[in-house]
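Data deposition worksheet. Section B asks for the primary sequence of the deposited chain exactly as it was used as input, without tags or linkers unless they were present during the calculation. Section C holds the resulting structure in token form. Section D is free text for depositor observations; keep each observation to a single sentence. Incomplete worksheets are returned to the depositor.
Section A, Depositor: J.P.
Section B:
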Amino acid sequence: MIKFLTRIILVTSVVSIMLYYFQPQSIFFENDLKRILEKNKVTFVTRLGPTTYYEIKNKKFGYHYSIMKEFADFIDVDLSIKVVNNIADARKMISSREADIISGWNIVDFDKDIKTSYPYNRVDYVIVAKSNISRGSNIEDKLLKNDIHAIESHVITNMGTNRERKLKYSYKIWRDKNIDDLLRMLNDNEIIFLFMSSDEFKILSKYYRDIKIVQRHSINEAEYWVLPHNVGSGMQNKISEFFNVMIDTNRLAGIYQNFFGQQQHSFVGSKIFIKDLLEVFPTYEFFFKEASKLFNFDWRLIASIGYQESRWRKNAVSYTGVKGIMMLTKDTAKEVGVEDRKDPRNSIFGGVKYLRSIYNRIDYELDEKEKKWFAIAAYNIGLGHVEDAVKLATKDSVEIRKWSDIEPYILMLSQSQYYRQTKYGYARGWETVKYVQNIKQYYDIIVFLDSQDKGVDEKDQEIPKTL
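Section C:
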């Protein structure tokens, strides 16, 4: 009898151990939601990129990030973001519960070791090339003869192993680069074809006007959150409830429209600008000139910044939540003492005061006529990122005196090879370069038109190329 009981106890112990180590762990993770609520934190793992996650002036942004933040607010916990460079690392993190959810990676939903959320977005995947390639009549031959470069995506890798959907072309998959890296390679003619999502194209084509779609690879592919296969039912139900609310309130569509429905930092064209200069600017002209005297900036320059920010619309609101003519953040408005960001005078005075504070904090030697462009770049991207670019240039033994000296290094802030060396990390440098370029164009037009009335020096009377 004693031997029998001993054997029963022994067998029970062995089975318990085997269950713990070898069975699917859903038993032990059925309270995922409870764990998250008790820790008061939900952790997402994602990648850096123009549509996923990035920072401006120490504030976090991104289309996918915005939905993550909505979920954290929905369950009333803090949001933690972890960044990785490849899908394998992301999957390990959710499997071990170092992270709870993957967002921003294209992982197909028929993998057995994952579960997926509601498909909250759908995108096409496109092959792009520079316009001189896209105009060619032999584009198909070129696609067959050249690699198509892409960041890691299961849209490609799983299609390559699917008998019913064989890949037609040869793809070069980069696991250590982001989409900005590959776009730079395309722009510099190091590669011919690039694979990206239609959402990435919507954003990047505004700044790289020379890239064109040559072929659509796949249509209406789902984007969703990825969960471990043994995720607890409570967590799954809460995520389903969240997306139902987001759809019912139209919040999901609103976030998408904020990020992809606006023409951010596009030059509107000289005709439209001159029309607004004649019809809209006179309403706020006095405020710009008053702020110009108070903070010692050329009124034509700060008017150009205001136009780039909002097209002089007092009720303007951007996808990042900034408001008013000078598009102030809540933190900036508080810093400069502005209570109502949509009040035109307050916005203009607050924006110019903030620009002056940035200008005064730039302590590296610059050509005085060029210093304003550095301050304007920092107004857009944050002074920390501008200083990162200066440090990158210093490492290359480049003496920064003019804006054109630092432009290439501002662009490098979106490339993984370089932003990993910086203090403030990834930044959409191509956005800032375009931002400054547009303001220069608006400024040149105002200076030229103003000079016609005042008869100033010959340089100011030169007709801007924009006209």
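Section D:
DSSP finds 22 helices and twelve strands in the chain.
Confidence is low (pLDDT under 50) at residues 14-28, 160-165.
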